[in-house]
Design goal:
heterodimer, A: 501 residues, alpha/beta, Rossmann fold, B: 431 residues, Ubiquitin-like (UB roll), de novo design (two linked rop proteins), 3 domains, 16 helices, 42% helix, 12% strand, globular
Chain lengths: 501, 431
């Protein structure tokens, strides 16, 4: 492998990489070795047009762009010389010649590479006396994105993204020179499953998502690492959190899972952290459901289950897991079923459209984890219910309705005990004898196993605004209330930390 | 008949003769003898060596060694190889390729076929600027004649050598004269230069190894084959051999095309061949090689027209398009027109070029309108410096150099505008 030196740091680099790719692969780019860049993006083709990443290479008379210069053994690269600094200042000054001075009302402010690099590498004063380019400020590019032509610095990442990632190619550059503008091709709009990624890769405030723009200033957001739970891919995200609310998902780079992307549907699934939640525990009595505390609901659930166990034995009890629950939740469920002697176990997995990029058919984050923990197809469980063999059912989530395994909640009307633990409202908990609200992945610790078998951790980003326990905690308490072997005292998450392995 | 004043040399010897543009007329005057000779007895590698030995430099503007360029083509037969004839001639002030195509299309095609033999290329794309209808028609007609006669197609002159020629018309952009901008346009894409590497010899037209040469460059080749490298080196200067066709335009008595040896003095071309300034006027400045080359003032015209001498005066031969301006010319206005052109034609990819061309033009236009500030000149020079040598192609340099040249030699014009607050040369025309 060729060895190169960058600012006296020696790197071994695979053949065929450019300098920026080598720095990126070594984890040094903008993290030890600062080579500012706009048009270059690790997951897009090389453009070489912004000219900001120029570096000095020993033996070459001109500065070279680091993004497109292949490494060669013995290459000596310098990124901090006066010539490099001057070249950066030059590019920054020219980029700002026409850039509008609307930072105070720009949604990108605070996470804008033009601001950042102007601060780091720019000149201290403006020398332009000429009027700035006046262009359209709010171009509706499609259902998800709004475009400000004036702010665009023409790095063309968005153009390359649409051509290279979703392959839809809606965007192009129209006109030449300083009249160049990004536009959609006539008769088309920017509309694909991944369209909102263009807002992430836009280094400035030119492309913003209709969903997030003007919701909050980004410096109020805390970025909490997490996992998108929209499908079995397990795309890595940052949850943008403020005031105990999640304002957005943005993709978090993971080259083994989602590169730097996320699909639009997954991105918007942050809304489900608030919307449609099951917000109170309830127990159904003769006059309908009554709200109770989680503890009271679990006590009622224990009583109902005990009734069936005592009269008909564990063969009359079934367990349905949720592919949305974490491995830790499901490990407690498995221990509970084991302790009860319940063999009838399954998991219902909703499926939908898939593609070759990120979107997986299984619309839950932990279906693979559930299977690995021994939960088979839900149909086997529901068949036993329909046969009348199972009289008590402990259900996590309402996935059986989403998957179609269960045509209607009425199919469960004859059960002697229907205990539902769910994060969201559905027709299912309305017919349950006991309904218990639980936590979504953004509200708890745990792990999720994606379709490829990769185990990824989640952590609490927000606290639910109502009383809700994780499934693991609730099931643990149920085990304690039933006096089962292996369930005693308080729930210790550490005991299930290895659930996924 | 040729309507412009001209002098002749080996390239233009028969240009007055309408029959020369036909295959029969061309052959009657010795045409395709060089091709026949090469196909019969010269190995491709030896043709490249001959062209190298002749010292022929590309006539499209950069002046790179033609033989060396041909030698960059891969020798193995893995992929089809292509030639591209750059007939975009988009540099303002240049009109030699036009006459070469109109008056001697077969001379061009013979050069192309010899180059194809030398490089192993199976196809040539002749990319003609869209406005050049007559030249493109002439080349197309000549190509049809060659197919009819079996000089093009699966067996060129009955040899085991295939070659096809496609004439492609451009849609009108300066940047499509830049070789990789041309390739993009040829492929049906927006004309904007490609980053290098990869270079065209590895990854050119449609991803195949490609050599791009200017029209005039090809035209020299049959003559070198017939008369030898020594003969060629006997014309012109030691470092810049051969002749070229200088196109003289602007404020002179006899604008026209003059085939002269490289190294002919600029003042000889302007004052003798082109007849000097109009009555009662004086030459103020001369752009020696197309609009992107820095201007020379009247007292610096005693320079031989070859790069080794022109470089000493901080300019270059370029395309040999000589533009003469007399003492009625406001150099600020001239700069304004030039900078407007480059602003209009920048493809807009690279930051320095896209923003720099616009900024320079706006400053110069403001000075011309009388609103210049004393430090504008320093800013202009600084912007020009930032545009030089840092971009994908040489366009940015080409936009910076003329402004630098104007400020180097005619700073006084700019300073008077700033001091007076208006243009001292009378009414401004619409820009």
């Amino acid at each position: 492998m060729p060895k190169i030196s960058v600012d006296d740091r020696v790197l071994e680099v695979p053949e065929g990489m450019t300098i920026l790719q080598a720095l990126d692969a070594a984890g040094l780019l903008m993290n030890g070795v600062d080579v500012p860049h706009y048009c270059w993006h690790p997951k897009l083709s090389i453009d070489g047009s912004c000219r900001l990443c120029q570096v000095e290479i020993e033996g070459m008379p001109k500065l070279q762009i680091a993004c497109n210069t292949l490494v060669q053994d013995g290459m000596v690269v310098r990124t901090t010389t006066e010539r490099v600094t001057k070249a950066r200042e030059g590019v920054m000054e020219l980029l700002l010649v026409n850039h509008p001075l609307d930072c105070p009302i720009c949604d990108q402010a605070g996470e804008c590479k033009l601001q950042d690099y102007a601060y780091e590498y720019g000149a201290l004063e403006s020398r332009t006396r000429e009027p700035r380019r006046a262009l359209k400020k709010r171009v509706d590019l499609g259902p998800t994105i709004v475009f400000d032509q004036e702010r665009c610095i023409l790095c063309r990442r968005c153009v390359r993204f649409c051509r290279e990632v979703p392959g839809t190619g809606e965007l192009g550059v129209v006109n030449r020179g300083d009249r160049s503008v990004i536009e959609t091709f006539p008769g088309t709009q920017l509309e694909n499953d991944y369209s909102m990624n263009v807002a992430d890769i836009c280094p400035v405030g030119a492309l913003t998502t209709k969903d997030f723009r003007f919701k909050i200033r980004v410096w109020f957001l805390e970025d909490v690492p997490g996992i998108c739970t929209g499908c079995a891919n397990g795309c890595n995200v940052h949850l943008g959190v403020a005031n105990n609310r999640v304002y957005r998902y943005v993709p978090r780079r993971n080259d083994a899972v989602n590169q730097t992307w996320i699909c639009d549907e997954g991105r918007l699934s942050y809304k489900e952290i608030e919307a449609g939640r099951l917000r109170a525990a309830s127990v159904r009595g003769e006059r309908g459901a009554v709200e109770v505390s989680v503890e009271a609901a679990l006590a009622e659930a224990a009583a109902r289950l005990r009734g069936v166990l005592e009269s008909r034995g564990p063969g009359a009890v079934g367990v349905l897991a949720s592919p949305h629950a974490t491995n830790e939740d499901l490990a407690v469920l498995r221990r509970l079923a084991d302790a009860l002697g319940v063999e009838t176990r399954g998991v219902a997995v909703p499926v939908g459209r898939a593609d070759q990029l990120l979107i997986k058919a299984e619309k839950a984050a932990n279906a693979e984890g559930a299977r690995r923990l021994g939960f088979g197809p839900a149909a086997a469980v529901l068949d036993r219910v329909r046969q009348g063999a199972v009289l008590a059912l402990l259900v996590l989530g309402h996935d059986a309705l989403d998957s179609g395994d269960l045509a209607s909640p009425a199919e469960l009307a004859g059960l002697a005990a229907l205990v539902v633990l769910d994060t969201h409202q559905s027709p299912l908990h309305l017919v349950a004898h006991v309904a218990v609200p639980t936590r979504v992945a953004a509200e708890k610790h745990g792990t999720l196993t994606n379709a490829a078998g990769l185990v990824q951790a989640v952590q609490p980003a927000v606290e639910p605004a109502f009383e809700a326990w994780s499934e693991a905690e609730a099931l643990w308490r149920l085990g304690v209330l039933l006096g089962l072997e292996g369930f005693a005292g308080r729930f210790d998450p550490g005991a299930f930390a290895a659930a996924a392995s | 008949m040729l309507k412009v004043p001209y002098t002749t040399g080996y390239l233009s010897e028969h240009f007055a003769d309408d029959e020369y543009a036909t295959l029969a007329g061309y052959e009657r005057r010795g045409g395709y003898r060089a091709l026949k000779q090469v196909l019969a007895e010269v190995a491709p590698a030896d043709v490249i060596e001959l062209v190298k030995a002749s010292g022929l430099q590309g006539r499209g503007g950069a002046g790179f060694s033609t033989g060396l360029k041909w030698s960059f083509m891969p020798k193995d037969g893995g992929k089809p190889k292509y030639l591209v004839c750059n007939a975009d001639e988009s540099e303002p002030g240049s009109f030699k390729d036009r006459i070469l195509m109109e008056r001697g299309p077969h001379q061009l095609l013979e050069g192309i076929l010899i180059a194809a033999w030398a490089t192993g290329a199976e196809k040539t794309f002749v990319y003609v600027r869209g406005e050049y209808r007559e030249p493109a028609d002439r080349v197309e007609r000549a190509v049809a004649e060659l197919y009819e006669k079996g000089y093009l197609g699966p067996k060129v002159m009955k040899k085991a050598f295939r070659h096809d020629v496609v004439v492609q018309r451009g849609a009108g952009a300066y940047i499509c004269g830049e070789e990789t901008g041309l390739l993009e346009s040829l492929e049906g894409k927006k004309g904007q230069p490609r980053k290098k590497p990869p270079f065209p010899a590895q990854h050119g037209a449609f991803g195949m190894p490609t050599t791009v040469n200017n029209v005039e460059t090809f035209c020299h080749v049959p003559h070198i084959v017939l008369r030898g490298a020594e003969w060629f080196r006997g014309i012109g200067t030691e470092k810049s051999p051969g002749s070229t066709i200088f196109g003289v335009s602007g404020q002179v008595q006899r604008p026209g095309l003059f085939e002269l040896p490289l190294g002919t003095r600029l003042d000889e071309i302007v004052f003798e061949h082109a007849g000097g300034p109009l009555p009662g006027r004086k030459v103020k400045g001369v752009i020696p090689g197309g609009m992107s080359m820095p201007i020379l003032p009247a007292h610096q015209l005693d320079v031989p027209m070859a790069n080794e001498f022109l470089r000493e005066r901080k300019t270059m031969l370029g395309t040999g398009g000589i533009m003469v301006m007399d003492d009625t010319t406001c150099m600020v206005r001239a700069s304004c027109v030039i900078s407007w052109f480059f602003r209009d034609e920048s493809c807009g990819q690279c930051t320095q070029c896209r923003e720099g061309t616009g900024w320079m033009h706006k400053i110069i236009e403001r000075i011309e309108r009388g609103a210049g500030q004393p430090d504008d000149l320093a800013i202009l020079l600084d912007v020009a410096a930032k545009m030089e040598g840092q971009t994908i192609c040489a366009f940015s340099d080409a936009a910076a150099w003329p402004v630098q040249g104007m400020l180097r030699h005619f700073r006084e014009d700019f300073e008077r505008h700033v001091a007076l607050g208006h243009c001292p040369f009378g009414e401004c025309f619409e820009l």
